[in-house]
UniProtKB/TrEMBL annotation:
Annotated SUPFAM superfamilies: Thiolase-like
Naturally occurring in which organism (per UniProt): Morus notabilis
Protein name per Swiss-Prot or TrEMBL: 3-ketoacyl-CoA synthase
GO CC terms: membrane
Domain annotation FAE: ranges: 25-311
Domain of life: Eukaryota
Cited InterPro entries: 3-ktacl-CoA_syn (IPR012392), ACP_syn_III_C (IPR013747), FAE1_typ3_polyketide_synth (IPR013601), Thiolase-like (IPR016039)
Amino acid sequence: MELLVLLYGLSIIYFLFTIWKRFDEKRDQECYILDYQCYKPTDDRMLDTEFSGEVIKRTKNLGLNEYKFLLKAIVSAGIGEQTYAPRIMFAGREESPTLIDSISEMEEFFFDSVGKLLDRSGLSPSQIDVLVVNVSMLSVVPSLAARIINRYKMREDVKVYNLTGMGCSASLISVDIVRHVFKSHRNLNALVVTSESLSPNWYSGNDRSMILSNCLFRSGGCAILLTNKRSLKDRAMLRLKCLVRTHHGAKDDSYGCCIQREDDQGLLGFHLAKNLPKAATRAFVDNLRVIAPKILPLRELLRFMAVWIHWKISKLSSSSKNSSMKGGLKEKPPLINFKTGVDHFCIHTGGKAVIDGIGVNLNLSEYDLEPARMTLHRFGNTSASSLWYVLGYMEAKRRLKKGDTIFMISFGAGFKCNSCLWEVVRDLKADGNVWNDDVEHYPPEKLTNPFMEKYGWIQDEDLSTFKLPE
């Protein structure tokens, strides 16, 4: 009898130990952000209206119709006069880039932001266990990751991932890679470096679908330090709660809507198709369908289900009553309320239309959209790093308090939509923030730029008599 009791007791102890062990292991799989550093180029790389006009005028393949298109695109883009371009633009060599131009642009960012991040965190390069670098439109040998390792003399056993071709959503892909490494290895520090190389990617042709990328993309980048060490969690800023990736590369129209290719003249550029908004919406909806149950309270999911069923029944009933008519009233479908589970929205600054579209689909207020709009105006579309400038704006405005949640949404070529939810683990004070010198001036009263005022006369020009002034 005593032996039986002992066996039962040991079984219970073993069961409890197994549960504790699994719980303990899960704690070592958490993904925290210790710190991040957005890149702010020097003022001599700043694009104002005057210089932007000079760059456009020296692009010889453009005519009056292209100038009119560019003027409309720039004015409506939501981009201001303080964004940055690579040095090759100021040297007037954007149509003849060299390999050194491309590498120098990246190294200027790497050495500034990674250095500042490591200094501020107190970590040495030898303490970095995982390095993930994403720069979509530049692939060199040795890799950009290898250049960082060489510069900072990192350990020979550092786990390295060098990503290219992932587009504007690459930084969340990088975080996802780190998250999966953290699940199988304890006590690691990871460095994610995200940027885009503009030096070799200026389009000098006249295809409108490819000219547009010249208007939107600007220089920038971000270095992010992550960890799963329990001993560092009290120093952390954010904790990753969930991350969802959606890839529509199997759909031909989605695959081709955002693609690097040559135009009819053989000039290389980045093609943005007319069906891009449709492809983005489709990927966005599919992504939300997966992540919503992970981040929203059950009461909101049940409420939305009930409202949606009622709307569907009402729509079917209305259609049957109006079957003999040309058409009835088209009621909008109900929207799920993401604010029931999200405090802040960190939206990719792909352009004003992207921000507006997400705002409509998620029923967001101007307060919710302000960080993305201001980031687009001040820094432009910095590709995969843009999310972190938006996060920096929230931090500089002292919006992020302990316990708040941040929903990040990004889009990229492929076509991809990636999103994740972060939890703020301590009140953030914006030490060393890229916005510190500018945040007092934001939001400005108006976001309009002077392009229409300076170049609006182009709208009244006639194709047969037009001559570009010297």
